[in-house]
Amino acid sequence: MKKNKRTHFMSSILIIVFSGAFLLIAGRFLYIQATGEISNISLEKWAEKQREASYTLDAKRGNIYGRNGMTLAYDRPAYRIQAIVRKSYTSDPDEPRHVKNPKKTAEELAPVLDVDKSYILRRLQKAIEEDRFQVEFGSAGKEISQQTKEKIEKLNLPGIRFKEEAIRYYPNGQFAAHTIGYAKENNKTITGVNGIEKEMNEKLKGKDGHISYEQDQYNDKLLNPDQVMEKPQDGSDVYLTLDQKVQTLLEDVMTQVNNQYSPEQMTAAVMDPKTGEVLAMSNRPSYNPNKLEDVENWFNNMISSPYEPGSTMKMFTWAAAIEEGDYNGNEQFKSGSYKISDRVRRVSDWKKDWGSITFDQGFTRSSNVAAARLVWEKMGTDAYLNYLKAFDFDEKTGIDLPNERKGKLVYNYPRDKITTAFGQATTITPIQQMKAATAIANNGKMMKPYVISKSVDPETGDVINEKTPEVVSEPISEKTADHVLNLMGSVISSEHGTGQEYKLPNYSVAGKTGTAQIYENGNYLYGHGNYIYSFLGMAPKEDPKLMMYVSVKKPDIEGNESGSAPVAFIFKNVMQKALHYLDIEPDKNDANHVKPVKLPKLTGQNASSIKQTLTDKGLTVSMIGSDGTVQAASADKGDKLLKGDRVILLTNKPVMADVIGWSKRDVLQLADLLDLKAETIGTGYVTKQSIKEGTSLQGKDYLSVELKPPESVEESTNGHED
């Protein structure tokens, strides 16, 4: 009886405890149901957050264009491959949506992605073991081209899908690579790293948008997704001053010289000295921004590599002396060597002795002694320093490119001061020289160099910013500039001039040669070819319309060959053709002068008739489609082309042309006209094409071409001393 009472008592206690717990839990559920909150967190909002998918809508990076509208950089669609491995994603066993057979998938994907099948299989199996929804394949599965995507799609592999993404693409390869620069993905955003891509990154990148919506457990959008979207603002398009034709001329000639002479380094640029616009700029070694493996030189040496310029500096020394009023060109001096005191090492001319010559002759023959005497005896070192600063040799040019460096005025000791006069001790960059030389070419007015022409809204076409020529200062008078131009002309035309090999058939040239010593490991290098050979020239002499700088470092030249031979080959070939192309009137009579062809109206004309007209003018004409009316063309009315240039005429029912032997530029123009997605592999001229001749075209077709340099490239550089 006593035991029974105890049992009833304990049972009552347990009933009370369980009843209390039940009431507490039930009350909690009732509270949650009534308020919809847990710990002040709304369950409805929490659920929405779990269902919500939020994505960034990438802004399209702006394109970069050349002076003539040629596309130099743009965002090209590429693909990232993804493999869905979660079995529950498949709702119908007959139509699997996940990777059903990892081994087979790895075996078929591996050769297309050019990786080992074990690499793909390991990643698939690991993702399955970890119960992940999907897996990617690292760098092997990124930036897949349209052609590769189509190959994979034909395999019909369950669970394999693609995500489209943009990559930065440079359709012309190493064309002006150091100037255009390159951009790469950084935290899923394409960011400029060098060149214009870096300089104009903020304008090019635009502003990303945003989208959010509700989705199910398989990442599929709900029927009523409650979508919110903020549209992206695409980046501005940027137009450069680079001229497509002039830049192409420069690239081709530098490649030829590089193949024959294997120099350690080359730099060249073409500028309009009246405005400061850079029409072409190139370096060797260069690189292809689409393939950044084994890049030898990241720097744009034109703006980033100060060096002792050598005798090109003399044009500024003579300009300073003439402007100062202490110059008598007919005054004679003793050449050979010059010593200002017993404590200062003597200065020597590059040739042992010319005897007594005038200061005008000293410039023509490039006398170091004449330059040193002008600074030490005539104008004085303090006055000369003022002119060096007036020419802005102590500061950057302000060109609109990143990573510009300025040279250094080394002007502490007497030896430094007199050697600066002929290009030693003090260092400057090539672009500093070109900027200063605009004062000589432009009646004393020194122009600021620039490569960015304008930025444009891609949607409206409205110009956002546009640059105009800027006069920085007037370090010398018009009279002095004219005097120096005449002296520079004598360097080319005189029988004793050091620049005779820079003569052009149709144009008078004013210029100054330079042979700069190379300072390495505490000493100057000596020996045949161990110099930086340079030339800064302008044409036509009386009123220069183009200025060009070329330097070649340590070329592999024969024992009887001058170091200026590769420099002269670049200058003459590019300058002569550029002057013709820009329709600059020759100032010398020559029967070989060929004017550029000015195009008539092309669109709307009878194709056969206009083809014959253009052919008669010396142009190469490719007609795409059946005979009829010209619907579109690769050039416009008023454009100026050189004889031999290709014009593409698009007519009715276009089919694929035979592009074997075409240049990269021609292929890209064709792709633009036919709305093809083009990919070029290599440099030179087309040797293979992916779309066969005569194939009907639908637009958006993928065209891949392989280019190789012609076998005649090296042969074409022979005899360049003519």
TrEMBL record:
UniProt xrefs under PROSITE patterns: PASTA
Pathway note: Cell wall biogenesis; peptidoglycan biosynthesis
EC numbers for this chain: 3.4.16.4
Membrane-spanning intervals of the chain: 12-31
Record InterPro entries: Beta-lactam/transpept, Beta-lactam/transpept-like, PASTA_dom, PBP_dimer, PBP_dimer_sf, PCN-bd_Tpept
PANTHER family from the UniProt entry: PENICILLIN-BINDING PROTEIN 2B (PTHR30627:SF26), PEPTIDOGLYCAN D,D-TRANSPEPTIDASE (PTHR30627)
Protein name per the record: serine-type D-Ala-D-Ala carboxypeptidase
Organism encoding this protein: Lentibacillus halophilus
